[in-house]
Amino acid sequence: MDKRKADIIFKKYSLIPDDLDKATFNNYEPQNDLTKIAKEKCEWFANHFNDLTGYNSLLLQGSYGLGKSHLAFSITKRVRDLGKVVIFITMPELLNVLRGSYGNSEYKESDILTACKDADLLILDDLGAEYVKNDEGKESWAADRIFQIINSRIDKPNVFTTNLGSKELAYKYGTHGGRIVSRMMNGTRLIKFEGKDYRLKGW
């Protein structure tokens, strides 16, 4: 696919917070040795995207405010420069869009799910921050859709970011939890983040 078409898909289906717009590898400031290593691994992943084999996905896991989303979007920009189809989605916003897709001619659920399935690289940011229960506290269609998306990406390159551990994610997604986590970790390298929230620096 040529870069122009890849850009159209990115702009149509990506859901990106405004504060990430200027995020790059160059302006990421590691807070400690662990986040420095995380940056190096993420940049290596982006630079070698065309040559990835075996473990071709990343899971950026750790507390909030350590730059996981910043690095994930930095990967997005670098891989897009290769002419690849990349979709970056913040999970809470995705579910809002899916809910609003019913009766909405601009976004059809099937189109969104197909775009996620077919992308050269899918980035799911802030996994676990979305609300997945219905009014009775039971698993809703949201957990079904999350499973559907992740299941469609098996053996394809992905980047996931989350504040939660594997047990917390599995619990959150109820009956789908174990399968969601299992498929997420298929061919995925874990990159841990630890430290203090950089947004509170100086407080």
From TrEMBL:
Keywords: ATP-binding, Nucleotide-binding. Gene3D superfamilies: P-loop containing nucleotide triphosphate hydrolases (3.40.50.300). The keyword ATP-binding applies. SUPFAM superfamilies: P-loop containing nucleoside triphosphate hydrolases. InterPro entries: Chromosome_initiator_DnaA-like (IPR020591), IstB_ATP-bd (IPR002611), P-loop_NTPase (IPR027417). This is ATP-binding protein. GO terms for biological process: DNA replication. It comes from the Bacteria. The keyword tRNA-binding does not apply. GO terms for molecular function: ATP binding. It comes from Lederbergia citrisecunda. It holds the Pfam family IstB_IS21. Residues 57-201 form the IstB-like ATP-binding domain.
